[in-house]
Amino acid sequence: MIELQKVNKSFGEKQVLFDVDAVFHKGKTNLVIGASGGGKSVMLKCMVGLVTPESGKILYDNRDFLQLDYQDVRAIRREIGMLFQGTALFDSLNVEDNVGFPLRMFSPMSEEERRERVNFCLKRVNLENSNNKYPSELSGGMKKRVGIARAIALDIKYLFCDEPNSGLDPITSRVIDDLLHDITHEFNITTIINSHDMKTVYDIGENIIFMHQGRAFWEGSKEEIAVARKELPELDHFIHASFIE
Amino acid sequence: MRIVYDLGKYMLFMRNMFSKPERFSVYVRRTLDEMTSIGVGSLPIVAIISFFVGAVTTVQTAYQLVSSLIAPSVIGTVVSDSTFLELAPTITCLVLAGKVGSHIASEIGTMKVSEQVDALEVMGINSIGYLALPKIIAGLIMIPVLIIMANFLSISGGIIAGKYSGILTPTEFIIGARDTFKAYTVFISMTKAVTFAFLITSISSFEGYYTSGGALEVGESSTRAVVRSCVAILVFDFLIAKVLL
Description:
The complex is a heterodimer of chains A (245) and B (245). Chain A is of the alpha/beta class and 245 residues long. Chain A has helices at 40-48, 70-77, 95-106, 111-124, 140-151, 170-187, 198-204, 222-231, 233-241; strands at residues 2-11, 14-24, 29-33, 55-60, 63-64, 80-83, 158-162, 190-195, 207-212, 215-220.
């Protein structure tokens, strides 16, 4: 479980997160939704340590990420997998080396064990027989799947996904959504997905946090959205603008 | 003030680079790859430039020393001393600042803007150490080797140009070069090579690492890396000459 308590972040004069409180549950797909500029990505970057908030707490199973020393932060980071919006695959490495990269850096596995684990991860994302391809030879959906395979290569506890459907067609988007949902339950991990795709919310959202103007505006399940949008015009406007009814 | 700020940032960058490597064998492999890229990749351009610099220096020195009182072998003395002290290390490194420096800055800069550096950080890898350290070590090994080769080819160019343009015979050239040869000039040549290698690789890595934005900014970082490396080379060229001669 990951918990945010009173997290604040500014860039110069502009404050982008205001006392954000949120809980991300283990074994669930936690979706962070909201319009662009609402603070979703900054919150995600704060959680993985790419951006340091001015105040507040980020608790990884009660370990305060912001108070830990450098080595302990690195230890937590090895429990984190992340799927970036642009996939962030290493251009100079082929698929096998990209997926095996965290294993090469951190696990004591032999070459043979590493290859087995890579093949397992690639099979899990339905991407067998692509080991020798380079990122430039892959489609957008394949890149996302390689990104997911790399994220789960180590035995992670937390999976972060920043706009996993961006740039994908609707069919491939559903494939990626289902994959993220299945992996979350199969490995019992805490998955946090940044998205503005309401289809994703209705398909795989189990715990939803609506970010609006830097605040965690609403939190609940997808079943509760219908009621909540009647009371919160901001949420209603966002859903309406998504053209999904 | 800007230069003081950048200098401080550069110092912090260098300090962060030397934290404990995650997996030593990975760094060795990366260093060997970089040695191939920097050393073997630069071989043709260094060979061509140093050969012609030696040839041109011979012809121009002969043009200036038009007196029957001066023995032709003096041309060999002037060309060999100029090669060791200035032409081979400085001219070669100015060229390498363009070739190697821009390559390093654009490679790291592209990784930065495409979130690949963030991916390394999220995995718990010291991205500065992982990206910059192998390049700097490879540069410190391979650039002096290239300078040794440049010294040899420049003098060879001088001998061949002298012979085929009828200025002096190879024997006269070698007698002139030997007459005043001091091993100390080779020491200065190597001191410059090591210093310039460090400046090129570290400044270019620094510029690449702090790229933000997109393709345009990668180009700007690359240009800035070359310009700053060249200026640093010229400043340290003067300082080394002043201190060691």
